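Per-residue structure
===
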Amino acid sequence: MPENTSTEKEKPRIGVFICHCGSNIGGFVDVKAVTEYASTLPDVAYATDNLYTCAEDGLNNIKETIKEHNLDRIIVASCTPRTHAPLFQRTCEAAGVNKYMFTFVNLREHCSWVHMKEKEKATQKAKDLVRMGVARARFLEPQEETRVDVTPTALVVGGGVSGMTAALSLANMGFPVHLVEKDKELGGFVRSLHALMMTTKSANETIRPLIDKVNAHKNITQHLSSHVASVEGFIGNYDVSIGGDGAEPKEVKVGTIIVATGAVPLVPDGLFGYKEHPGIITSSEFEELCNKKELPRLKSVAFIQCAGARGQKVSYCSRICCNVAIKSAIHIAENRDNILGVTEEKAAEAGEAVEEPAAEKKAEEEGSERRRRRRGRGRQAEDGAGEEGAAPSSGVEVTVFNRDVMAYGVENELEFNKAREKRVKFVRYGPDNLPKVSVKDGKLEVGYFHETLKMERTMPVDMVILSTPLVAQPDAATLSQLLKVPLGQDGFFQEAHVKLRPVDFATDGVYVCGACRGPADIAESVSQAAGAASRASIPLANGFVQAEALTSVVDETKCTGCGTCVEVCPYSALRKNDEGISEVIAAACKGCGCCGATCPEGAITMTHYTDQQLLAEAKAALEEV
């Protein structure tokens, strides 16, 4: 399809399309006045307004107008370019105009939303922004995007549930996958757990089929007791060195990389008497005791939520801790899997007898329990729910001290209700009145301020279980430097955009899933892993990537080879050639401009954001209306 470019005409023919965006712009800006003003600007051949430019009729209007008025440059003044710029660029291409002859003017975030109560000033600013866009559009030039071949192989870092899911998903598509796991076996953190939420199977029983599928798949090459030692290259062409325990590093070439390294539980040193008494343990240590069947005989258990979270050791809520505590509380209340050590063998050793209740007695107890629920339903409050009444069926009193219960989702809410029906008590505490765990005469006590009764109380307990948050892996910073991907303020890997690109990094070709991007349960980790695998498979399936023409260009006659640009590039998109002159890796360059800003010789310019274009825009901003 032929393209209308500036070389075919002596004078630019600019089309301006201004959007009302419903009331987002039109409610605070006089769009008609801005449109009339735009039509008077030099080189503007056509100007109009639309109620919704991104709607089908608005896009068709752009296509028809380009052909009718022979436009070679297009300006759309509307809402955020992050979501809509690609849509308008495709529309321009469909009408025969190079996508880089398009300019976006953001009237919503830059004008109407920040000047909602100043319609006259907002209208004037909108005119200024449109004038600046027109000034830049005069110097736009068509660009060509380069294609880069892709190695159809993937690397997955992390052999937990999310890593195995991502690897298996890619392998089932027919792509070879290198799966790197630092432990000597697959399974990750889940392997150490006793039970999972909303299932009667053990954790190992639940993930065993997944491990077996990964072990049996011919497209998956496992690298156990290994780590990523170095990464060089860019999307489609990564050279990765995989190091092992005392073994020679293995060199592999991959096209895309998925990070699924998971997270680890916080060690609550110095909190709630941890390590001062063997009965004060973390939730992960509780799971280990259940696995080993080493849980002692208990009469009362206290869970303390947010142990180290929300301003104590870390600032964030770990999200899944409440659901884990609810799951564990139900297991204790029901003595599921005989975790309380009252098996027939242990009872025989202690000279005790374990009676199975007769069917009639069991039915009577169940009927009594149902009647008790009906009477108590409606009068149980959120604070101290279930505090009065009989103990759970296991005979163990279970109390969950919480700031608030984060039981998000329908299933988790039902589990929360089930725990209350099992007579698990939920006692709320404030951030200024944390529970205090003390040891008196070798026995544990929990002191707390009862929010409802407004008084201090104490509770003797046999065990205190601290619900600690998940924190980032200790080697997350090292891996982030190797892959040139960012970490958030809490140490977890940070995606490109939490809504628009939730499993992508800003660096093309690298993706993230599971608890390494933030605390997540197994269901969420599996969903993210499937999404990351889907994203990573696109360049592998295409066999190439088309790099945007928003890259830096090096003038070899000016470059002295000082290497400043190579050092400052956050994407490792510059390197020195055999002659010592800097050259750009188009597939890796994101057009951020760091290299051009720091080049002492002025040898680097940016395509589509040239000095001429930016200076024209800046001068237009200073013009008097």
The chain has four domains: 6-143, 154-262+473-546, 267-469, 551-607. The first strand starts at residue 14 and ends at 19.
